[in-house]
Amino acid sequence: MDVNEEYERYEPTYTVGLTEREALLRERQGLTNAAQDKITKSAKQIIRDNVFPLFNAFNLAIGICLALVGTWSNMLYLAIIILNICIGVVQEIRAKNLVENLSLLSALKATVVRDGKDCEIVVENLVLDEILPY
Question: In whole angstroms, how large is the CA radius of gyration of the chain?
Answer without folding.
Answer: 26
